[in-house]
Amino acid sequence: KEEDGLWEETFKSHTDTKPNGPTSISLDFSLPGVEHVYGIPEHADDLKLKTTDGGDPYRLYNLDVFQYELYNPMALYGSIPVMLAHNTQRTMGIFWLNAAETWVDISSNTMLDFVQGSSEKPQTDVRWISESGIIDVFIMLGPKPSDVFSQYASLTGTQSFPPLASLGYHQCRWNYNDQEDVKSVDQGFDQHDIPYDFIWLDIEHADGKRYFTWDPHKFSQPKEMLQGLMDKKRKMVAIVDPHIKVDSGYKIHNEITSKDFYVKNKDGGNYEGWCWPGGNENGQTNPIVTTLLVAFQGSMENLFTWNDMNEPSVFNGPEVTMHKDALHGKWEHRDIHNMYGLYVQMATAEGQIQRSGGAERPFVLTRAFFAGSQRFGAVWTGDNAAEWDHLKISIPMCLSLGLVGVSFCGADVGGFFKNPSTELLVRWYQTGAYQPFFRAHAHLDTTRREPWLFGPENTALIREAVRQRYALLPYWYQLFFQAYRTGMPVMRPLWVDYPKDTATFTIDDEFLIGSDLLVHPVTEEGSRGVTAYLPGAGEVWYDVHTFQKHNGAQNLYIPVTLSSIPVFQRGGSIIPRKDRVRRSSACMENDPYTLYVALSPKKFAEGKLYIDDGHSFNYDTKKEFIHRSLTFANNKKISCITMKITSISEMIWHANLLIHFQTGKETPVDFEFDSSMSVLTLRKPGMNAGDDWTLLLQ
């Protein structure tokens, strides 16, 4: 029976010819014993997925969404068709490998009202529906959360190991006007003693939106500009969208045309659509073109890339994207739509690697993504707004991405659209400083919001948040090394480390960084206090600012002021820091590490320290790195560090502390002991991080 829309479908003024006719595939999954499911980003919603009974399914279809709605299953910029299910017995995952438009329906008997005390077993049912393709599903059986992460990583790869500098602070807006503007902003950070690593340029830097070029008037000396940043050990990112201006005088367009790299329309001609380069005078490039362009433009080594609008965005297309019957070779766009952005980022990352002859790690940020995008760089949550609810939602959005492999994620600090209040901006910096990708960004029509434009008191608060980020860079870096090696998320929900604690299963206003830092950002306007859940019966947590100790398995009320960032270190952990903060991460390269040891009444403390050159592939190709185990234990050699005391209270003023090296050499070390806070500080022990050593109390 022929029905309207089966063989040809119209949407407003657009027509989808459906040359292969009506298709779809679907499969249902029942999850007995499961109440909590997570994942399938990207959606601006809670961490725990909701039932869709009586409403719209979660949609996975990469779109350029203008001012997206919150707490809504609507499609956003990226799609990862991976769902995790968790209960106290098991964690498991479903990977629905399909890049076509996909819908996910969720129903659960526990989400309905039924008689209290009912013996009905909880169950969640999930239906996946894709427009085209084949049924290709991977079930990841766990049973532990870490097992699911490694199982998924074995299929799609782990998070790429980023350059250390990319874990620092990034300053961006649409747009810095010209070279003088860039120089002025750069100097402003030095004048106000705020560190940063990258300054970013949006679309206005190019000559008439011709990507891979510079505006000849506003950016007439790009190498001079980049060299000025390099002299300060800083870097720049320039945007490259996948839209190429049709211009016979534009080398890039001519090269693409000669190699026939443009996407085709249904009739075989070059696909043309409207985006930033202008009217119907630009074509969507085939993603493969980007690698040729980035590799051979002769750009300086401190210039990196931002892939935006790569859903792909087409202003005059259906739903502001490419027609489904466009062609990539023999493949219809409908079949590969959600992976288009992945290939743009992949090609860009490969181009950067080629630029250095394979020596240097790339840095590429993308807005659109798919399963496996983690192998090629970072992701951000798109065009958010300067509103408190958008600050709050950044936490579950990043947590959801981390659960499905994308650890290097963040949200635009301050909000992209609209102008934040001073309080909101400060709180956003404090939150962003503890999320993996830390970038401030703003729309063309917003007022300027460099960190020093809101009065000296607020400048000081923002400076302190950014400095806290830089002090913790050694910890962030070793966590990203772990993510690269194992697939473990860097920023993670509490239940990942406390899988049997049901109180953690729906928490998404706080999170863990690795296993050892717990962060509860202040995301309510005018807040005078927050309540943080500290997990772990029998464990202790230390306020990182005051060193005050708190027991685990409790809800702790924390009074806050505008300067407060509630952060706790887990008892039994050792966290490496660099407390001598300078203007960029590279300037801190040779500064000493400080180890923060948080004791536990039940177990010895342990941690990791990872060191390499911070930018090359030598850690892999030449095995040039230091990866140390750090242990604080009771008179027992565990690894490279052993301290012969069981609690700080054993420290007395007439004690002697010695550093014992594996060679037999012993060196005394100065120390201070604050009995009021039970804090022992060792001053300038003078050992190399690569040496084996033991701390002795005599």
From TrEMBL:
<dbReference type="InterPro" id="IPR011013">
    <property type="entry name" value="Gal_mutarotase_sf_dom"/>
</dbReference>
<dbReference type="GO" id="GO:0030246">
    <property type="term" value="F:carbohydrate binding"/>
</dbReference>
<dbReference type="InterPro" id="IPR048395">
    <property type="entry name" value="Glyco_hydro_31_C"/>
</dbReference>
<dbReference type="Pfam" id="PF13802">
    <property type="entry name" value="Gal_mutarotas_2"/>
</dbReference>
<dbReference type="InterPro" id="IPR000322">
    <property type="entry name" value="Glyco_hydro_31_TIM"/>
</dbReference>
<dbReference type="GO" id="GO:0017177">
    <property type="term" value="C:glucosidase II complex"/>
</dbReference>
<dbReference type="GO" id="GO:0005975">
    <property type="term" value="P:carbohydrate metabolic process"/>
</dbReference>
<dbReference type="Pfam" id="PF21365">
    <property type="entry name" value="Glyco_hydro_31_3rd"/>
</dbReference>
<dbReference type="InterPro" id="IPR017853">
    <property type="entry name" value="GH"/>
</dbReference>
<comment type="similarity">
    <text>Belongs to the glycosyl hydrolase 31 family.</text>
</comment>
<dbReference type="InterPro" id="IPR025887">
    <property type="entry name" value="Glyco_hydro_31_N_dom"/>
</dbReference>
<keyword id="KW-0326">Glycosidase</keyword>
<feature type="domain" description="Glycoside hydrolase family 31 N-terminal">
    <location>
        <begin position="11"/>
        <end position="105"/>
    </location>
</feature>
<keyword id="KW-0378">Hydrolase</keyword>
<dbReference type="GO" id="GO:0006491">
    <property type="term" value="P:N-glycan processing"/>
</dbReference>
<feature type="domain" description="Glycoside hydrolase family 31 TIM barrel">
    <location>
        <begin position="160"/>
        <end position="479"/>
    </location>
</feature>
<dbReference type="Pfam" id="PF01055">
    <property type="entry name" value="Glyco_hydro_31_2nd"/>
</dbReference>
<feature type="domain" description="Glycosyl hydrolase family 31 C-terminal">
    <location>
        <begin position="487"/>
        <end position="575"/>
    </location>
</feature>
<protein>
    <submittedName>
        <fullName>Glucosidase, alpha; neutral AB</fullName>
    </submittedName>
</protein>
<dbReference type="InterPro" id="IPR013780">
    <property type="entry name" value="Glyco_hydro_b"/>
</dbReference>
<dbReference type="GO" id="GO:0033919">
    <property type="term" value="F:glucan 1,3-alpha-glucosidase activity"/>
</dbReference>
